[in-house]
Specification:
About 35% of the residues lie in helices and about 15% in strands. By secondary structure, it is α/β, with parallel strands linked by helices. It has 2 domains: about 140 residues, no CATH class; about 350 residues, Rossmann fold, CATH 3.40.50. α5 packs parallel to α12 and α9 packs parallel to α10.
């Protein structure tokens, strides 16, 4: 009997041990299933979070620009952009978000920073690192006390740096609102006087708006600005300068240098007329009072009693609205202004051109300098007032529509001088044709999206009706619209074009520049 009872108790003990072993095996089995299942869940959540953080980093990088009020990089805007994209991607389990840039972290995050930002600023990049942490809850691993795991994901986004070239009209018309009626010369519009006083109008207003535009758009140290003027710049009160377009400042990072050069732009200041009839425009004074910019050599020939002299009156050395010349210099600026190592193809190339009238001057190529020493100015425009309707204007024909554009290699045409009756074969390639060609070359000079060009027409002269009777379009607007909307399409079909804006006066300029700044900021993220 005792032996039977002992055997029964042993069997019960063995059954108890088996239950423990089965329970342990079951827990192990659940742990194994949990390890597989919850690890898969963890990987799924990691992938989801990684995609969300990647998008958030790109969104944060799009806000890589100065705060308009403080001029300091706005980290709050970056964090808000990152958080919004995480929410859009339904990453609701995120518990912590950090946004870092090189400016904010310095050497703590070498991946974001150029090791030599002072001596080699061209390597500076707009990099933003977004780090997000999220808890992932487990389903099966809870049975062994592992309730969740924390994921940490980081991603770096980059915004395009900006290379901005400003093309500013500095012709004599930029002083025509200093005193008296606008858009015509008055005694108070003497560029020598108003340049010295720094109150030439609308030049002063343009400079003020351009300064604010650059301050609001450019993040100094990363973005660059170049300044090109329509004419050379006087360095002293009485300096006489040439009408040639001038690179006042190559693409530059330094804030003080950029703002100083914009703030000190001058209206074209040619020599004072002295009766010498030298080529080029001069400033005319009557009884010591400024009258207007004057083409002494041309007016003298037109007023000569000898018909032979009148027939050869050549105005080509006097007009100074060389829009094409500025566009040509913009190409050089983007190319590094003579130093190819200073050109960066990965930045957004943007040009903003402001003009107060149509193109009437040009820069001849080296091959054409002997035939056209003062630029492309067809002989049939020299005596425009004697030509039949539709009449041309100085150095430009009566048809500014791009569909009527010509090339320098077009066949010559026969021209009969209205004074002498002499027939000659001439080229009709003019200042407007040259400006279109330079615009095409500029817009298409960069592969991919090309160079984005914005144009601004300032003042009523921009909308002077064309000679061919088209009452719906200003003469200069044909050119400025073409430059902004169509230039380069024949060379590169992928160009990301800008837009043309008309500013009837300088009051509307600020709003236009704000629109352009917003448009450029949008293109950075495209």
């Amino acid at each position: 009997m005792k032996r039977l009872i002992g055997k029964t108790q042993a069997k019960k003990s063995e059954r108890g041990q088996a239950i423990v072993l089965v329970a342990a095996a079951f827990i192990g089995l659940i742990a194994m299933v949990g390890l597989v299942t919850d690890t898969g869940l963890l990987l799924i959540e990691y992938g989801k979070l990684k995609r969300s953080v990647d998008s958030a980093a790109v969104a944060a990088a799009q806000e890589f620009r100065p705060d308009p009020d403080t001029g300091v990089l706005n980290l709050t805007a970056m964090e808000n952009a990152a958080r919004s994209f995480l929410q859009i991607n339904q990453a609701n389990n995120v518990k912590d978000i950090e946004v870092h840039t090189c400016d904010e972290t310095g050497e703590d995050r070498p991946d974001l920073c150029n090791p030599d930002p002072v001596d080699n600023p061209i390597e500076n990049r707009k990099l933003v690192e977004v780090t997000a942490k999220a808890d992932v809850g487990f389903a099966f691993l809870r049975v062994i006390g592992i309730n969740s795991a924390e994921l940490t994901v980081a991603s770096i986004g980059e915004a395009a740096t900006i290379d901005l070239v400003l093309l500013i009209d500095t012709s004599g018309s930029m002083a025509y609102e200093t005193s008296g009626a606008p858009n015509q010369s008055n005694p108070g519009d003497d560029p020598i006087v108003c340049n010295d006083a720094d109150n030439c109008q609308p030049m002063r207003a343009v400079k003020d708006v351009a300064l604010d535009f650059v301050d609001s758009l450019i993040y100094f140290g990363y973005d660059r600005v170049a300044v090109i003027t329509m004419t050379e710049q006087a360095s002293g009160p009485t300096d006489a300068v040439d009408r040639d377009p001038t690179e006042v400042l190559p693409l530059t990072f330094d804030q003080n240098t950029i703002l100083y050069n914009i703030d000190n732009l001058k209206v074209f200041q040619p020599r004072v007329c002295d009766g010498s009839n030298f080529p080029g425009e001069c400033l005319q004074y009557i009884s010591g009072t400024f009258n207007k910019p004057y083409c002494e050599i041309y007016e003298s020939a037109i007023g000569d009693p000898d018909p032979g002299v009148r027939a050869t009156a050549d105005p080509s050395s006097c007009p100074s609205s060389n829009i094409g010349g500025m566009l040509a210099l913009a190409q050089e600026a983007f190319s590094g202004s003579g130093d190819p190592d200073y050109s960066r193809s990965d930045s957004l190339w943007v040009t903003v051109l402001l003009a107060s009238g149509p193109a009437n001057a040009s820069t001849p190529s080296e091959a054409d300098e002997d035939d056209y020493p003062y630029g492309y100015c067809p002989q049939n425009t020299w005596l425009f007032f004697l030509m039949p309707d539709p009449k041309p204007k100085l150095c430009r024909d009566a048809y500014p529509d791009p569909d009527n554009g010509r090339t320098a290699s077009d066949p010559l045409v026969t021209y009969t001088n209205p004074i002498s009756g002499e027939e000659m074969d001439i080229s009709e390639y003019d200042a407007v044709d040259y400006a279109r060609d330079m615009a095409d070359n500029l817009a298409a000079m960069k592969s991919g999206n090309g160079v984005t060009i914005y144009t601004i027409g300032l003042g009523e002269n921009v909308q002077t009706l064309v000679a061919n009777g088209d009452t719906s379009q200003g003469e200069a607007e044909f050119l400025l619209q073409y430059i902004a909307r169509d230039a380069g399409d024949s060379l590169n079909s992928e160009i990301n074009h800008g837009e043309y804006f008309f500013a009837p006066n300088n009051v509307t300029l600020r709003n236009i520049f704000e629109i352009i700044a917003q448009n450029i900021a949008t293109k950075i993220s495209e």
